[in-house]
Amino acid sequence: MTGQIVFDPLLPWWIVAVLGALALGGAMLALWRGLTGWALRLLAGVVLVAALAQPSWQVEDRAPLADIVLILEDQSASQQLAERAGVTADAADRLEAQLLARAGTEVRRIPVGDGTGDAGTQLMTALSAALAEEPRGRIAGVLLLSDGRLHDLERAPDLPAPMHLLLTGQADDWDRRLIVQNAPAFAILGEEVELTLRVEDDGAAPGAEATELQISVDGEAPQSFTVPIGEDLSLPITLPHGGLNVIEFIVPEADGELTDRNNRALVQINGVRDRLRVLLVSGEPHPGGRTWRNLLKSDSSVDLVHFTILRPPEKQDGVPVNELSLIAFPTRELFLEKIDDFDLIIFDRYKRRGILPSIYLDNIRNYVENGGAVLVAAGPDFASADSIYRSPLAEILPAEPTARVVEQGYRPAVTDLGHKHPVTAGLLGADTWGRWMRQIEVTPERGDVVMSGVDDRPLLILDRVGEGRVALLASDHAWLWSRGFEGGGPQLELLRRLAHWMMKEPELEEEALWAEATGQTMRIIRRSLGDTVGAVTITRPDGETEEVPLEEISPGRFEALYEGPDIGLYRLEEGEQSAVIGLGPAAPREFEQTIASADLLEPMITGLRGGTPRLEDGVPGIRTVRSGRPAAGRGWIGITPRDAFETLDVRQSPLLPAWLVLLLASALIVGAWLREGRN
After folding, report:
1. Measuring CA to CA, how many Å separate 375 from each of 16, 151, 368, 513?
2. Chain segment 15-26, per-residue pLDDT in tens
3. Is 475 helix (H, G, I), strand (E, B) or coil?
4. What is the pLDDT of residues 350-365, one digit of tens each?
5. Which fold does the domain 276-314+328-502 belong to in CATH?
6. Are the C-beta atoms of 284 and 202 separated by less than 8 Å?
7. What residues contact 140, with CB distance under 8 A and at least 6 apart?
8. CB distance 308 to 242 below 8 Å
9. Domain ranges across the chain
């Protein structure tokens, strides 16, 4: 029980002060004039002013509250190394027992695991959340049981009591780690990309100067190199294929090091083409010719070479050759010497006119078989005797013309197989596409028919020839879509997919298996032209395997979600298809630095008068220290009692009852009057 004087003025304090000043001024005036009752006048003014302030005697009944000590147990991944987890749990138990043995002390044990994703150890975030749930006036101390490797120091709260870091780990711990300092997300195929690596030894390392480095691409057999320790290593790499390339770097575990979890790193780089080099070979001019050229020139990533015949051999107009402004086209250089420089060759209504000898066309056939790509946009000439089918190109073309040209309106349609093929799958709005007015009748000999025209005749046929690819579009009226005839159609998207499929982009392969990662969850995707696919066999980083069934979500596309239990490289296999994917960061943040250290927290702890003892020296004792005094010493740490209390009851009684104020004031005023009247 405690008591104190409190005031509850009837008027604002400034008015009370003014009235007090007037009373004092009146008394001083009486003194100056020699009135003998000035002292009684002053006392009467003091009584009246005090009555306006309404002083009361307040008595409180208080119940003392226990002090609260927070114990944060770091249970992050780095705390599972060596014997840290057991040491931490044992120390927390012993500290809790010491604290509970003290009268008026409560303990809050707070486990702190890994943060979401790759956030690392979030000790300060957990401490802030704990402080938000407890009265700050009762916090007597904060004990952190950790290796000191936290990743949210910027969120440290303002503490009202000492904080101590009880450091886990051993003084002789050492660890070797692999650091990827520079790794681009994208790289151009055929060009070197430079990665910067570094191998470092932390802690009480034995002082080795070099170690082995193994490099594996897409899960293939690794290559080994000897690299120095403690020096930056520039590593030039040329990506082997487009799409996702998974590169794994491994440093073998050394004897005595703390962990090998940071001895490997995954780098995932997307391979992209710099520019698409296209050779457009045009025949007789027609409305669609300009459309093809405009379409290709509108894409800044396309380098276009357009070969067209402006003056055919049969043209006889009597103009001397030396007066023509035409420049002879370098056909030999293009079709013999530099044909392999092109990614795609397009024949747009081209027919044999004696301009390109058969040896040139035969060289194009070889170009396709060795990995090139040819797209034929067929017009009426394809059905004639001068058709390029009547040339060495017949060996690679997927269909033979019947010599019939169908001249009637029809709406192009995607076939059942086309709904599964990545080139035409998902092309929406087929019912609203504009009509085409001409189709060349062909007889398919091989390949996949993905679009049909008049009476379900083949319209677009795709085929693989040797290492290359061929596409045959049996119409020269695709340009009607680009002109918006009857609403047009997806010409740009169709041709973009065609070009990427012919460039062997992984996302447009008919038979493909890949995965997309989000954190530790991967979406497994299998594309197939078949009706069913088998389960995917997943090989985890620890070597264990498991099978995951796939579900068809659209024609030819099968998917499944899989939660990876570990960070690292996963291998996927289904039939003849295989893929690799890395889950988690290139180097987990929790294992970037594993040697226990108080360096990060020491400035903050020093400012709070705390200490950073090592648990390997024993669990420290706990003492009581006053606020502002050093709270740590050899073998002990301190907490500051807060003397917090809970008010159970409050009683107030006035110091100046109204009758007493009236009596005192009247007596003093009358006394002053009588004294001055007697004089």
Report:
1. 100, 55, 11, 26
2. 888 888 888 887
3. coil
4. 888 767 778 888 898 9
5. Rossmann fold (3.40.50)
6. no
7. 67, 68, 69, 105, 161, 639, 640, 641, 642
8. no
9. 2-63+647-678, 68-170+596-642, 177-273, 276-314+328-502, 509-583
In this structure, the strands spanning 645-654 and 55-64 are antiparallel
In the CATH hierarchy, which fold is given to the domain comprising 177-273? Immunoglobulin-like (2.60.40)
Q: Which residue has the tokens 């899960």?
A: 219
Give pLDDT tens digits for 487-509.
Answer: 889 888 888 888 888 888 878 88
Amino acid present at 591: F
Check: CATH 3.40.50 for 68-170+596-642? yes
The pair phi, psi for residue 532, each rounded to 5°, is: -140, 160
pLDDT number for residue 311: 57
- Where are the strands (E) in 531-679, listed by range? 536-539, 545-548, 551-554, 557-563, 568-574, 577-583, 621-624, 632-633, 636-639, 645-654
Task: Select from 1.20.1330.10, 2.60.40.10, 3.40.50.300, 3.30.210.10 the CATH code of 509-583.
Answer: 2.60.40.10
- Strand, helix or coil at 410? strand
Q: Does 509-583 match 177-273 at the fold level?
A: yes
- Tokens found for residue 472: 């045959």
Taking each continuous run of H as one helix and of E as one strand, the counts in the chain are: 11, 36
Q: Which residues are registered as beta bridge partners of 571?
A: 539, 580
Q: Does residue 319 register a pLDDT over 70?
A: no
Q: How many angstroms separate the CA atoms of 72 and 74, rounded?
A: 6
CA dihedral 380, 382, 386, 390 (to 10 degrees): -160
- Beta strands, E only, 39-162: 55-64, 67-74, 105-112, 139-146
Structure tokens, 665? 């004031």
- Cα–Cα–Cα angle for 640, 644, 647, nearest 5°? 175
Query: Rounded to whole angstroms, how far apart are CA atoms 512 and 501?
Result: 12
- Whole-number Å distance between alpha carbons of 381 and 391: 13
Give yes or no for a contact between 193 and 221, defined as CB atoms under 8 angstroms apart. no
Residue 415's pLDDT band, with cuts at 50, 70 and 90, is very high
Confidence of residue 128 (pLDDT cuts 50, 70, 90): very high
